Amino acid sequence: SDSKVMTCAAVWRMPKELESGSHESPDDSSSNTQTLELLCHLDNTAHGNMACVMWEPMGDGKKIVSLADNNILLWDLQESSAKAVLSSSAALEGKGQLKFTSGRWSPHHNCTQIATANDTTVRGWDTRSMRQIYCIENAHGQLVRDLDFNPNKQYYLASCGDDCKVKFWDTRNVTEPVKTLEEHSHWVWNVRYNHSHDQLILTGSSDSRVILSNMVSISSEPFGHMVDDDELSDQEDQHQEEK
Q1: pLDDT in tens, 181-221
Q2: In sequence order, what DSSP letters do the residues of 105-118 get, joined into one string?
Q3: At 161, which helix (H) or strand (E)?
Q4: Structural domains counted in the chain
Q5: pTM for the full model?
């Protein structure tokens, strides 16, 4: 708008045919193209450019957090999600132009915590008070690009950034990372935990590689078992000596 590039956010409804539980395959080439229904915009005119939007991980899908420049905005979707009301907000304070790059809403602690990244710092926030609960300064040597919470293990958070590293943190003690991965040779843009087996970590980087890492030592699963015992029993009989 007015020759300026603005990044904004909106909430859309997917066609009912594509909702989970429907029998039609969305990739069916014979199906007609469906259009999304615009429900509402997240009005950020007073807060700056949107960097990230996050649904509440659990709950009824009525809460969204957005990060706009140096603001955290908590939205309440009302009237059948057709209107977004700003219920609370907080701002980063400090020297210079502080801007968020990414964030992640924790599925633990009754969904009352989110983590954000700005510059080289990772911060934790309580969504009830919108106050900071922990701060990892210089979490990475350069810009922090992405974050993800371990879906099965409370307090565990992964971060990645332009220093080519992926780091794993215990948010109860943020002085040192629990573990550091240095597999990439350029900026690491994304990090994601596998939803079922949290020892599997996927990272994507501008070194043109996607790497799947097996982090058994900091996972919630003992010995890194990913196969049901029943499936193993036949093989175990045959390979008992080898094991």
Answers
A1: 999 999 999 999 998 899 999 999 999 999 999 988 888 87
A2: E-SSGGG-EEEEEE
A3: strand 156-161
A4: 2
A5: 0.82
